[in-house]
Every structure is written in structure tokens, then in C-alpha cells.
Amino acid sequence: RQEGAILIDGVERVISSPDEAVAFGMGLMAQDRRDCLIGDQSICDNIAIASLEKIVSHGVLDVGAGRQRALSQMEALHIKAASIDAEVRTLSGGNQQKVQIARWLAADTRILIMIDPTRGVDVGARHEIKNIWSDLATRGHAILLASTDAEELVDACDRVVVMSNGRAIGELQGTNLTEKNLLRMATDG
């Protein structure tokens, strides 16, 4: 069993549920988008699901506010669809991934945990998603990227911790963070 501490804004936090994580400004993009997107629901509903507390007042859902939040994120992330009412299952893989990101941005997430976020998307969508998280990092969001793609890690990360069997076996950063060093560490560990 591994143990550690989670620091948010320099303060140690204990997080025991997804609701607590969201309350602390954390969001998770699952490895398989089908695990967290509701395919037969609209883009709007999928985006709003993590930010309901922001669009509910005195127990009443403000549908207009939810639609505006979703539309704003759809435009900002260039999600390609006929409207915010399109079912998520009708979107390409890359646009589905963008809906996941939009969900957390609409919830004002500051810490985004991404697990293989570009897996199964085409080259163009991969580039767009990388630009999105680069922009988020520039704006002060923390991005924790778990990936099996060495090139993606080298391109996107300031620091990489290599894990094997649930244990950290090494760390690379700066000029040492290269694909060659990363792959060597991963295979030697």
C-alpha cells in the first residue's frame, strides 16, 4: 500500500469521495470516455453534470444558465457538433474528449487529472487537445497526465514520474526529459 499527501494551494487535503474532489476543484478525465460520458444525452447535459451546484438556486435548476455555460465551453474548445443538444454518442472521439474537458472547465476545475487523454483520437484532435491543456497550464491550471505515450509525456510535461507496479521508480525533468531516457527508465524499472 502506498501513501502520500495531497496539497492544494499548499494545504494538505484529505479527499474521500468524488464530491469532495470536485469541491476542491479537481476533475478526472477517464481513460475510456465511455466510462464517464452519457452517450445518449446531449452535449449540454454532459457538460452540466459536474457543475449542477453552480446552476441550481434554491433547489431550482436554471436551464438557461446551464445551456449558456455549455455553449460557452463548446465555443471555447471548438467542439464540432450541430448544436449543444446533439447526443454525445454522435460526436467523433476527439470531440467527445473535448466534452470531458468542457465538463470540468464549466465546473471551474483548477486541477485536471487526465488518463491517456488522446488515446483513440485522430491526429488533428490530438493536436487540438494538447493545445487545450497547454493553454490551461499557461492560465494556472494544474494538469496531472497519466499516459502510456512517451512522446506525449515529453511534449506536454514539465516533470515525469515513471511508475512500475504502483511504485515510483524514477523521475525526469528539464533536459533529461527525453523519449530515450523515459523509455530506458520504464524498461529498466
Q: What do you see in this structure?
A:
The protein is an alpha/beta fold. It contains 8 helices and 9 strands. The strands form 4 sheets. A 3-stranded parallel β-sheet has the order 3-6-7. Helix 4 packs across helix 5. The model has no long low-confidence stretch (mean pLDDT 89).
Envelope shape: globular
The H-and-E topology, N to C, reads as EEHEHHEEHHEHEHEEH
Span between N and C termini? 19 Å
Describe the main β-sheet briefly: 3 strands, parallel
Determine the strand fraction and express it as a percent band: 15-25%
Compute the gyration radius: what is it?
Answer: 18 Å
Extract low-pLDDT stretches: none
Count of individual helical segments:
8
Helix-strand makeup class: alpha/beta
Q: What spatial order of strands do you see in the largest sheet?
A: 3-6-7
| Mean pLDDT across every amino acid position | 89
Number of E strands: 9
Q: Give the helix level as a range of percent.
A: 40-55%
Structural topology:
Layout: E1 6-8, E2 11-13, H1 18-23, E3 26-29, H2 43-48, H3 52-55, E4 56-57, E5 60-61, H4 63-76, H5 93-106, E6 111-115, H6 123-138, E7 142-146, H7 150-156, E8 159-164, E9 167-173, H8 179-188
Parallel strand pairs: 3-6, 6-7
Antiparallel strand pairs: 1-2, 4-5, 8-9
Helix pairs in contact: 4-5, 5-6
